[in-house]
Amino acid sequence: MFITLEGPDGSGKTSQLPALKEFLQDAGYEVVLTREPGGTPVGNQIREVLMNLKNVSITPRTEILLFLAARAQHVEELIRPALAAGKIVLCDRFGDSTLAYQGFGHQIDLDTLQMLLDFSTGGLKPDLTLLVDVPVEVGMERKRVNSTEWNRLDAYTLAFHERVRQGYFALAEAEPARWVIIDATKDKDSVQKALQTAVTSRLGGG
Length: 206
Known about the structure:
ATP binds at residues 7-14. The protein is an alpha/beta fold.
């Protein structure tokens, strides 16, 4: 099963993933935990370019292509082989991030982005996507407190990040069978429990 976590910056999804992985392993599953951009040596090099605050000259079109290049490598080198081996793949962001950030955030044509996504992934889509949601102001304040995580995309305007959040809601509404929205304004243990419940429900049903 391919499970992705999505959400606005500062939602806390990344910090929740190790505990979710441990929960699934304790239940007897083989689990691969990965992230985007990244997940492979090539992808991690591209991540350095994308996230570096020095690279403010990167245009939205360049940004899209870099993300997609990292994703293409990620799918072929890590995700598909793990799924073929019967493992659960937990991924911190995937294609929906491109639609939310570059599509709704940068206001790039969604049909064009979807075509590029299909090419970069070979048509691979998650079985379950967990939207770990917080209001934009809450998420950005969390990011500011943890300044070591502040990156080039974080530095976009609040209006940009609000469009991203609303974009996620639109994506979830369009595919309700795939998405589960998790309220991440609650305490960390409650959020983890909600994630575990959502995943267990899908595994039990599948």
